[in-house]
Amino acid sequence: MKCMQKPILEVNGLKKYFDIKGGPLGRKVGEVKAVDDVSFTVMEGEILGIVGESGCGKSTTGKSILRLIEPTEGEVLFEDKDITHVNGEQMRQLRKDMQIIFQDPYASLNPRHTVEKIVGEPLLVHGMKSAEQRKERVRELLEVVGLSAYHATRYPHQFSGGQRQRIGIARALANNPKLIICDEPVSALDVSIQSQILNLMEELRNQFNLTYIFIAHDLSVVKHISDRIGVMYLGRMVELTDRDRLYGDPKHPYTQALLSAVPLPDPDLQKERIILKGDVPSPANPPSGCAFHTRCPHAMDICRQVRPEFKPVEDNHFVACHLYD
Amino acid sequence: MSELVLELKDLHTHFFTDSGEIPAVDGVSIKVHEGEVVGVVGESGSGKSVTSLSVMQLIPKPPGEIVNGEINFKGENLAKASEKRMKKLRGNEISMIFQEPMTSLNPLFTIGNQLIEAIRLHQKMTKKEARKKAVNMLNLVGIPRAEEIVDEYPHQLSGGMRQRVMIAMAMSCDPELLIADEPTTALDVTIQAQILDLMRDLNEKENTAILLITHDLGVVAEICDRVVVMYAGQVVEEGTTREILKEPQHPYSQGLIKSLPKIHEREQKLYSIPGVVPKPKMGRVGCNFAPRCEFAFDRCFNENPALYPLENGRQSRCFLHDDKEGKVEMHAEADIRS
Predict the structure, then answer these.
(1) Which of A318 and A282 is assigned the larger pLDDT?
(2) From the CB of residue A68, how many other CB atoms can be counted at a distance below 10 Å?
């Protein structure tokens, strides 16, 4: 892999609580703890994968970093600068360096705009006033993501899902960002198209020295693309380590269950399956102590009372579980 | 092999739209035996869902129509069956589970209401008996507090629970055949594992035949005995799960399996099939996959390949497996191995 000493992004104690309004007066009656005290660091040039089931807060984490959703608490350091308190204009400038690719290539492109307008808009917003220059750059970007320059005059509905995701990627690349948050970029795509997009993203990373935060629920995809992986459960990070250790030697019982639940396209593989009982509890009313204790096969008394600390159990391997106290 | 439950013979389901006739299902033949789990895999637009809806005669008409072919269910051709007869069969002898457990339950009725309706429609039972049976079914599919859940509404349940209710409803009349259209696609992996476990269990205990429509080859490996691979409205390959996943013969199946990211190994670059899935079109000449195929030669663009038999009852729709092209096959085999 690349040399990666310098952290590009540091997230410390990030929290995002959504209010639940209710009653005849619409008063606040509770909170959904979508992201509850999450911390991690992303090194320059690396791909950090974040996996978890629906509702675990992985997308909210991604959006809070960009302040597309305002975080409730915590700090986000981008290149050593705390960006949670900068004003709107400064944040707008910062977004030149931090971009996002969304899951649904059908919903994230304006159907009334041509590709040229879609990809050219971030250029205009960030000061490329000359229409000529923008046109040139859009064409260049389309070629970079594997489309053709003549696609620029078309509308989103004229493209297939994979091509639309390429447009989304071109838009994200427009201002030469340093960090791209990819929120389930391939979940809506077919297998044969998915591999095209994954390859493209890896090529672009090498070509432009990008850093990705890759959010997905598909464990095989995350394994393929990431250098390090964090596992989230009910708004909390439960394990974070490099790829091979996470898949080879998962420590947290949730990670173990999650990995064992993935159906693999190999009929010869005999594996011990850990079937978790029940559903993910509601984040509006998370269990006390360790959020996973209601479904954990190893739950102890302490798990019901004390929230386990997220700390290293060995070099570069963070786990939040009382089993490793 | 045991008794044949379902046999599709050269099924053609076409849609008649403003922009012309679309052969969504273009000559599909599938056999399902008693107690067997058959997987139908393919990407979006391959016609796998339309195939399953055709069996149930649930294709909206117009624009869709079964223009040709037979759907033999225990010796009866459903393509010719009356709506009245179909109503008797649906939910009774053939049941279906859909992808979206959120949208396939009626939000205005309790779980019990909907289960009891299905049971009483097909079985002579009093309301009380039906309710008892509903609770039993909920218990069978592993729903806790079944006594209370019966009186709850769909929105009070999670996605996994709702899918369990759908399965309970589908199984309530002991169907001979269960058609499951992407039953776990909308669910999380840990919940998916629970549902697959449940389906495997029901298949073993009740000996229900299952036709499973999915795009996930992992799910296929978990539960299916036999697999049919579809591409652009046609079956391109058929074989046992093991054979298809371990030694795929058709270039498309090979590409599909190669392009999956593997969880246990990591390659620098994923294999990917160039291009996109074509839209089905009338009167297409040549193999549907030829434009994306790395082995394509002249014949592939000028003639339509048939399903050629391979050993062990396998089939592949590729000229490489036509005996006349013996030499090419060896050449191609060498290519694949390298």
Answers:
(1) A318
(2) 12
Domain of residue A265: give its range: 1-97+217-287+305-325
Q: Which residues of B touch A151 (CB under 8 A)?
A: none
Nearest CA in chain A to B257: A265
Q: Note whether B246 contacts A267, CB cutoff 8 Å.
A: yes
Average pLDDT over residues B131-151: 86
Nearest by Cα to A44 from A164, A142, A199, A177: A177
Whether A53 contacts B190, CB under 8 Å: yes
Measure CB to CB from residue B263 to each of A191, A220, A225 and give the nearest one: A220
Give residue ranges of B with CB < 8 Å to any A CB: 43-44, 144, 158, 160-161, 188-194, 196-197, 215-222, 241-242, 245-246, 255-257, 259-264, 266, 269-274, 276-277
Asked if the Cβ–Cβ distance from B276 to A265 is below 8 Å, we say: no
Q: What is the mean pLDDT of residues B258-279?
A: 78
> Residue A268: inside a domain, yes or no?
yes
CA distance B257 to B236: 14
Note whether A267 contacts B193, CB cutoff 8 Å.
no
Closest to B1 (Cα-Cα) out of B34, B28, B24, B26: B34
Tell me phi and psi for residue A75, to 5 degrees. -125, 150
Q: Residues 224-243, chain A: which have Cβ within 8 Å of B?
A: 224-225, 243
Pairing mode of beta strands A7-22, A73-78: antiparallel
Region B258-270: mean pLDDT is: 75
Question: Residue A45's domain is classified under what CATH number?
Answer: 3.40.50.300
Helix segments in chain B, DSSP class H? 48-55, 83-89, 111-122, 127-140, 146-149, 159-171, 189-206, 217-223, 241-246, 251-258, 298-302, 326-337
Q: Residue A187 burial by CB count (10 A; 0-12/13-18/19+): exposed, middle or buried?
A: middle
Provide DSSP, A223-242.
HHH-SEEEEEETTEEEEEEE
Domain spans in chain B, listed from the N-terminal domain onward = 249-337
Beta-carbon count within 10 A of A135 CB: 15
Q: Is residue A45 part of a domain?
A: yes
Minimum-distance CB partner of B263 among A160, A264, A276: A264
Residue B338 has pLDDT above 90, yes or no: no
What pLDDT, on a 0 to 100 scale, did the predictor assign at position A149? Answer: 87
When pLDDT is cut at 50, 70 and 90, the band that residue B140 belongs to is confident
Say how many CB pairs under 8 Å bridge A and B: 119
**Cα(A51)–Cα(B105) distance, integer angstroms:** 30
Dist. CA A279–CA A296, nearest whole Å: 12
What does the pLDDT average to over A148-174? 90
Which tokens belong to A315?
Answer: 């070099």
- Residue among B197, B217, B241 minimizing CB distance to A275: B197
Chain B residues with CB-CB distance to A268 below 8 A: 242, 246
Q: Would you call A263 and B222 a contact, using CB atoms and an 8 Å cutoff?
A: yes
pLDDT of residue B336: 45
pLDDT tens readout for residues A117-150: 999 999 998 888 889 999 999 999 999 898 888 8
Report yes or no: A195 at the B interface, CB cutoff 8 Å: yes
ipTM: 0.77
Instruction: Quickly state the pLDDT bin for A2 (edges 50, 70, 90).
Output: very low
Pairing of strands A47-51, A211-216: parallel
Pick among A166, A221, A224 to test the B interface (most B CBs inside 10 A): A224
Total tally of structural domains belonging to chain A: 1
